[in-house]
Design the sequence.
């Protein structure tokens, strides 16, 4: 019997394909109810094979977080790709190569970027103007109509840059303290984007609004005026999303399987092979005293993993070691060489580090980093 | 003129070879003064080419942090390798393969690991017992003589496991608040290890003591009784080591070059392409209010980088974006498409993510992750 356990030698990211497909179907249904296109963000999985699960459900456009990632997915047959980060103009050669083959859309927020592209582009591409609706990472403040107008005016005269509308990311939703805050942030993004649509509707033909954060796309049913949803993390979810209320525990589709390499009975600690180079050092604060949580524990089963185990958590990470603090009971359950499962705090960062995944039905899945 | 600037398209880890070689020579000199072998930890650079710079200076043994990394360096000609993490027994097939070809040394701290190896090994290998001198990550407490005796007794009867002595890591030195604390922690490790040497000297022929942390190996001249130094980070150093006082600013041998992709004049923020997937999310607290610092700023020059720029720092990271907060002056200096340099907080984690390096003399250097 070819159980998972016998296939795992070192830290391994397990992926439950059925859970992924359920998550994909649920988001497709939500986008349909919102009457919006789903353009899933593929930075989470970075895998052509996982991408195909979307394709099989009818998805034909995606977002990515770098021009290199756009190239990888273009090479795997995707024909409509938005690079959802302000354009790095140094990538112009690869941008030109991709724009000659597919519908490539870039994101800009500055006059300089537009002038550069206008001068260096050899092919047409779509442009979204990045607007800031409260996250304050990047984008033009949505109320700065004058600054936005400068950009739309520049594009009006361009034969290569086709302004497609406005793109926002309610990234502050990942730091929300409860669902009410997510709804509030999301409402402001909706209001701001729709106001821009009203202002620029006449001068930008077929103007579109694109938003995408997994928390709002997972819990809200309100997307008036929005043409496109762009969430990414939902395909895997993780502990951060579970704590935010974006998903149920059984919707988390990835778990890291790590071998126990040492045990300390005085401190009730299990040491695993599995560190910052596997999980990333992202954590959430588990209590008001600032206790760091790097992952929750599950038992690895014959073809997947159990519910979250009470009485323990991944408490520390160095480069290759992880420290699990646990109850007497859990401590006694695991010995040297056993596998223990960890639901990661941030699946995007963990998946990026792991470079390939083992599906719970026993197949290795490669990524652009394999 | 082939300047660095023209070679850089996306986030790129620059490496100053001469600084690396200076760091290597300084550590070799320190080990010689201490009358100890230098067994550098290669988890920092993970590169056969950087490894050769050590080999050219006469280094012939190394430490690594996984059996896979041991295989990579064995494939590149290294014949004496210690895997300096408690053994993951699931790697037994690769362990046997390597032990048939090179002098392989493993680290153990449990009866279970010894019994497993004794039963499954096909070749001789060296064993270090991991002892804990205060870091409390793993290892048997150095005062637990009885527990250690159980392990040495088991190995006395083994024909495959050759006990080589004791290995410790003063990892709490990375969290020290000043140099005095580093000296204090280091003194305790020296005392503890030497006491063990005295106790087990008779029963373990050629007993050895191995310690290795970059802070103590960089600032102490006191290594009595120690046979082997095992630091790793010193080849690159980083901001964390600079803050600890382990290195001078001009000994930091790596800097990330990142393109500016957006600017926000209201917040004096530069947005770079360069995020958690490039730097890792490791940070240090820059002040008593908990301000996070993910890296310090430098100017990229024709063949390297400048001194640290005052008036700004890398303040936030998401997956692919970084946010630099800076003074008016710095803000005005950088426009869209310019490169800005960042000295990373933790070079080991950053190098692991970047997978290859661009030397400041214009050559690409590959790693085991390339």
Sequence:
């Amino acid at each position: 019997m070819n159980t998972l356990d016998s296939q795992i030698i070192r830290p391994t990211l397990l992926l439950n394909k059925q859970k992924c497909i359920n998550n994909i179907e649920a988001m497709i249904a939500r986008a349909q109810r919102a009457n919006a296109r789903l353009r899933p963000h593929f930075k989470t999985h970075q895998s052509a094979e996982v991408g195909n699960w979307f394709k099989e459900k009818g998805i034909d456009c995606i977002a990515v977080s770098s021009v290199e990632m756009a190239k990888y997915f273009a090479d795997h047959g995707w024909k409509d790709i938005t690079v959802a980060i302000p354009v790095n103009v140094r990538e112009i050669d690869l941008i030109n190569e991709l724009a000659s083959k597919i519908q490539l859309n870039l994101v800009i927020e500055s006059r300089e970027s537009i002038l550069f592209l206008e001068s260096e582009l050899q092919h047409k591409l779509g442009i979204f103007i990045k607007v800031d609706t409260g996250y304050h990472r990047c984008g033009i403040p949505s109320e700065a109509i004058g600054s936005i107008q400068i950009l739309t005016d520049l594009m009006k005269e361009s034969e290569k840059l086709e302004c497609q509308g406005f793109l926002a990311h309610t990234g502050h939703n990942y730091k929300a303290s409860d669902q009410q805050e997510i709804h509030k942030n999301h409402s402001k993004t909706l209001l701001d984007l729709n106001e821009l649509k009203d202002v620029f509707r006449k001068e930008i033909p077929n103007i579109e609004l694109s938003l995408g954060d997994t928390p709002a796309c997972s819990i809200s049913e309100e997307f008036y005026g929005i043409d496109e949803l762009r969430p990414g993390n939902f395909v895997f979810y993780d502990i951060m999303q579970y704590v935010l209320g974006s998903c149920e525990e059984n919707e988390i589709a990835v778990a890291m399987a790590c071998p126990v390499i040492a045990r300390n009975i005085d401190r009730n600690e299990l040491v695993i092979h599995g560190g910052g180079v596997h999980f990333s050092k992202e954590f959430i604060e588990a209590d008001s005293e600032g206790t760091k949580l790097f992952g929750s524990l599950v038992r690895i089963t014959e073809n997947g993993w159990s519910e979250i185990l009470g009485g323990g958590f991944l408490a520390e990470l160095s480069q290759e070691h992880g420290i699990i603090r646990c109850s007497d009971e859990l401590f006694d359950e695991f010995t040297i060489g056993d596998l223990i499962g960890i639901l990661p705090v941030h699946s995007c960062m963990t998946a990026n580090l792991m470079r390939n995944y083992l599906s719970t039905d026993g197949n290795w899945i490669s990524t652009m980093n394999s």
About this structure: Residues 50 and 174 of chain B are 24 Å apart (CA to CA). Chain B has 13 helices and 22 strands.
